[in-house]
Structure formats: structure tokens, C-alpha cells
């Protein structure tokens, strides 16, 4: 197999049901799985972006696949034999941000006993993945912008300038334009980063990927724990298709992982089915009462998600907008497993 083919992203033909073990067959070398139209468009765009060298801004909710997509761009590109260097911008203290990006010479700080290279040097010839770029301290934003202007940088404590051709891929789960408006992100840096944009749709917007991903994670975790292959109970399948997945693919993976550990039989009945029932079997649908209850539940869940998005996760503001008491709204959020701090849910149950 040539390296292009080895790294190519695969997707399952639309006709397959996907909940079976065939999911593993749809896995590519770097593990991106899907078959929805939205996934196909994502894969096409990743392929196009990989043929270029420009900065990329990857946008999407938490756990949606921003890092795995950035890795796919790198490994599909000419840079694949050079390093892919991830940096979590949210984890760098402001005082160390320049040293982290550009490195430092020996003695640059009291405890800098040896020289250390920064991520920009480490990613030379390859790709620097700036995760959570929205959380990059202001000082880091200034330094990064300066580097992006002419690709020159200076390690802390060194007078000579160096050059790096590292490709920059930045990821954010909050639209940078909102942060620019709020005055916490530099607009000039946003424009530098946002040359090619890759927006990864939430899992609930590409539901036909759920069976494939669930089947894949099921196979992976059964194999990891030396268990014989298992299948999903019909109620589990229904639950998986109806849950809102605020934590996206990462949350789906955790749900399957946990249930593989807990389930003794050959058929996995998710714990979540009991904690948050949302079955829509034919039997359930035929009852008017049940169909009405399901429609209300679907409405309430999407209403709440949209409300919290509008208020950026503030439950008090959401309660005011919805003309509901905060406590009542809190109960509803809990019912649907929607987290109250960020507007995203924790795991149900
Ligand atoms: N299409 C996919 N196929 C298979 N696995 C996937 C896919 N998308 C995401 N994953 C898996 O889901 C998990 C989360 O993905 P990733 O870390 O790329 O998300 P993220 O958007 O960077 O999350 P965060 O916002 O929390 O940083 C990883 O374990 C990843 O391998
Ligand atoms: Mg990430």
C-alpha cells in the first residue's frame, strides 16, 4: 500500500447499517471513522487542506475530533515524515509563554540550567498544533503574531534570530470572532490563523456516524480487555441515536468503554438506557402517548441546548430568557444530562 493510500481516510458505504463489527474495517491508519454526508465533506476538505501550507483554524465543540483532524492533515501532507507537535495553549502560564513557543538559552531564567528548544523549533519542517488557541495568554498572542508575520523568532535570552517553516494548525471550541468582540483575542492574530477554516460538525448533526463509531469502539474495547466480540442491545442502539452527545465522539467512546467493562453478557445493554430512557422502538412509537412524550423530550432538549448556547452557558441568563425559575430550568438541564457551567453535558447517569 502506498503511503497516500495508507493514510487515506475511509468512510463506510451509505447502505451499511454500521452497528456491527464491520466498523473496524472502516478505520484508517489515523483512525477517523464516519460515513455521513457531513463526514464526507470534512474528509474532502481535510484532503484539500493537506495539499497546502497555509495556517488552518479548526473549529468545533469539545470532543468532536479537532485534534484527530489536525493529525490527519499533517499525515496526509508532504510534512508527514517531520514532527507533529501539539501544544495546549490553555495550560501555559503567561510568564512562560515565550519560552514555550521559542525556547530559551541557558541562564535565561534563574532555574534555566540548560538551553531548551521551543515548540516552533521542534515543529520545523512539520506541523505545530496550537490546541485551545482561544486560551493563549495575551503575551503569547503578541509573540505568535510576530512570528507569523515573517517566520522569524528569537529564543528567550538570545540575540540572533532563527527561522522556522512549521505549519500552524490552531484549534478552538469557541468562535474566535466572539472573543475578539469581548476583547480577549487579538483580531489581527485571528485573521492570520483563519486562512483555511475547518469546521467539524457536532455528532448530533451527523447521526449516521454514530452506529459506525459505536461499533468501532465496541470492537476496540472488547479486544483491549480480552473479551469476545459483543453486540449492542436494540435498546442501546436506540438510545445512542437519540442522545444529544454534548461531549461528542469522546463522550461516545467513554460510554462504550464503561459499558464494555460493566457488561457480562454478549449483548451490551447500556446503563444509560435505564438512567435516561429515550427508546423509540416501533412498539413505543405506536402509542400516541409515547410518541407525544418523545416529541416533547426532543423539543425540550434542543431548546435547552440552543438557549445555553445563546447565553454562553449561563443558567441564570437562560432562565430569564425562557421565563422559567432558575431551579426549574436546572432540573430540566439535569434531566437531559446538559451541564450547567458550560452548556455542555457531563456523562449521563
Ligand atoms: N471520526 C472519528 N473517528 C474515530 N475516532 C474519533 C473521530 N473523531 C474523534 N474521535 C476520537 O474521539 C476522541 C476526541 O477526539 P479529539 O481529541 O480529536 O477531539 P477534540 O475536538 O480535539 O476535543 P477537545 O475539544 O476536548 O480538545 C479521541 O479519542 C479521538 O480519537
Ligand atoms: Mg483537542
Automatic annotation (TrEMBL):
Signal peptide: none annotated. Keywords: ATP-binding, Nucleotide-binding, Transcription, Transcription regulation. It comes from the Bacteria. Pfam families: AAA_lid_14 (PF25601), HTH_8 (PF02954), Sigma54_activat (PF00158). Residues 32-261 form the Sigma-54 factor interaction domain. One of its GO terms (biological process) is regulation of DNA-templated transcription. The keyword Nuclease does not apply. Residues 1-21 are annotated as: Disordered. GO terms for molecular function: ATP binding; sequence-specific DNA binding. This is Sigma-54 interacting transcriptional regulator.
Amino acid at each position: 500500500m502506498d503511503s497516500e493510500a495508507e493514510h487515506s481516510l475511509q468512510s463506510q458505504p451509505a447502505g451499511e447499517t454500521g452497528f456491527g463489527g464491520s466498523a473496524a474495517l472502516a478505520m484508517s491508519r489515523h483512525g477517523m471513522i464516519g460515513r455521513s454526508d457531513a463526514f464526507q465533506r470534512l474528509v474532502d476538505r481535510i484532503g484539500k487542506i493537506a495539499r497546502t501550507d497555509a495556517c488552518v483554524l479548526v473549529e468545533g465543540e469539545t470532543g468532536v475530533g479537532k485534534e484527530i483532524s489536525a493529525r490527519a492533515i499533517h499525515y496526509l501532507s508532504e510534512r508527514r515524515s517531520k514532527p507533529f507537535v501539539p501544544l495546549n495553549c490553555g495550560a501555559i502560564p503567561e510568564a512562560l509563554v515565550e519560552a514555550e513557543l521559542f525556547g530559551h538559552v541557558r541562564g535565561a531564567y534563574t532555574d534555566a540550567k540548560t538551553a531548551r528548544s521551543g515548540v516552533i523549533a521542534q515543529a520545523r519542517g512539520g506541523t505545530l498544533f496550537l490546541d485551545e488557541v482561544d486560551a493563549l495568554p495575551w503575551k503569547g498572542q503578541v509573540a505568535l503574531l510576530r512570528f507569523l508575520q515573517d517566520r522569524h523568532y528569537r529564543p528567550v535570552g538570545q540575540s540572533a534570530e532563527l527561522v522556522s517553516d512549521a505549519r500552524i494548525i490552531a484549534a478552538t471550541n469557541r468562535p474566535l470572532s466572539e472573543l475578539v468582540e469581548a476583547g480577549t483575542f487579538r483580531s489581527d492574530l485571528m485573521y492570520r490563523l483563519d486562512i483555511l477554516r475547518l469546521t467539524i460538525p457536532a455528532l448530533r448533526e451527523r447521526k449516521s456516524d454514530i452506529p459506525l463509531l459505536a461499533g468501532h469502539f465496541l470492537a476496540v474495547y472488547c479486544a483491549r480487555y480480552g473479551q469476545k466480540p459483543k453486540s449492542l442491545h436494540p435498546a442501546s442502539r436506540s438510545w445512542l441515536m437519540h442522545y444529544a452527545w454534548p461531549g461528542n465522539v469522546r463522550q461516545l467512546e467513554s460510554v462504550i468503554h464503561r459499558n464494555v467493562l460493566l457488561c457480562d453478557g454478549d449483548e451490551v445493554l447500556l446503563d444509560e438506557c435505564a438512567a435516561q430512557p429515550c427508546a423509540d422502538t416501533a412498539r413505543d412509537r405506536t402509542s400516541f402517548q409515547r410518541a407525544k412524550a418523545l416529541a416533547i423530550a426532543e423539543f425540550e432538549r434542543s431548546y435547552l441546548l440552543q438557549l445555553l448556547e445563546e447565553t454562553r452557558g449561563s443558567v441564570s441568563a437562560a432562565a430569564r430568557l425562557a421565563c422559567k425559575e432558575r431551579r426549574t430550568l436546572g432540573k430540566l438541564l439535569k434531566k437531559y444530562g446538559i451541564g450547567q457551567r458550560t452548556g455542555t453535558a457531563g456523562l449521563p447517569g
